Amino acid sequence: MRDKSYSTARALWLALRAGGFGVDAIELLLQWRNEAKSPFDRVQIGIDMNFLGLYAEAGIAIAEGLDGNLSDDDLYLAKHELAFALYGIGKFREAHSIYRSLRCASSFKPLIKSLYPSEYQRNTELFQKKFLNLDDSIAGKRVAVLYEGGIGDFMMYSRYLESMRLEGVEHVTIQRPDIVAGVLKPRSWLGEISGANIEDILDNHDFVTWSFTLFARYQDTPFYPPEPSSPWAQAANAESLPTLIREQLSDDPLDRKCLKIGILWRSTNTNRCEPYRSLTLATLAPLLSQQGCQFYSIHVGGVTIEERDLLDKHGVRDLGSHIENFSQTASVLDHLDLLIAPDTGPIHLAGAMGRPVWTLLSATADTRWYNDQYFTPWYASMRLYRQNALGDWSLPLSNVARDLQDLISLRGVAA
């Protein structure tokens, strides 16, 4: 590299990470980490470390940067990333103390700016009077919970709706995308809206909050929350499924004794964990040769020619091409014995339904999964399978194959 400047090196490791060369990006970043001198550069390289799964190193670098002069926006982002780093190494209480400080009234303006950067001034004025602080009582109140994040976040944080009921809330209205309509279990005190005008929401509620804030408000331990004690998502009537899906799921003499296993290998959207969150179907293919199993693809959004050939080769039944929404996905999951997939919306849906799900996590996995190898406090029916090296799925898939064989033996399925 002719230009030995820090900025050039950083541009290169960012390009390597984006291109899927995570190991090379890590090696280069670690070579240059001591060249990040200013508080801003310390925070910036710490964030880059977070994106590469180097959570322990990230926490140190970001904490060092916090000692310097940062703008209000940079300070808010730095604290956010420091909380992520601490969650990622299992330091829940330290992380949660920081995270709670970012979702309370004292952080109202930077929070609104992070949620609505293009409409910051307008939304600051709108939400100011009805912002739900972490210690505000909601007993006898009407509260709107606005959509934040993605489908997985919606499913995961909807667990806290029951906590709101136990606190005495009169009514909760939760904002959600159309695609998840009908997935949450109906409750007399719960309403759902999609794409509503914010002014109308505020007029009809005493408080407004966001789904991530429910995590800050109610989760006070890294272990199982006290609520809910039962699934909070449901499957629609199987008759609502397209005929082709129902036919594919129905028993026949060839698969009556087989375990019915859903698979999904890549996400259809992007987030900070890509390109490492997803894996290729070819990487998953050795698992598909397991005897005693009938596999079903629930991947939506179309498949490539190569993926189609692999599905056909292993006799995988393609349901995803016919699934139109998450309500139908829930009905499919209700007919399966197990789902095996990376961290995408369907694994959260399966967990919220109490359906068995084995989640494949990369070394850059979202820090919501903390640092336990197999356990997650979010879903009692979920088991985790983690990479021990970025980009290398051999260990988690080997463990899945072993546990799948044990499950087949336990269920008495003929191999």
Automatic annotation (TrEMBL):
Alphabetically ordered keywords of this record: Transferase
SUPFAM superfamilies per the UniProt record, alphabetical: UDP-Glycosyltransferase/glycogen phosphorylase
InterPro entries in alphabetical order: Glyco_trans_9 (IPR002201)
One GO molecular-function entry: glycosyltransferase activity
Keyword flag Transferase: yes
Protein name: Glycosyltransferase 9 family protein
Organism: Collimonas pratensis
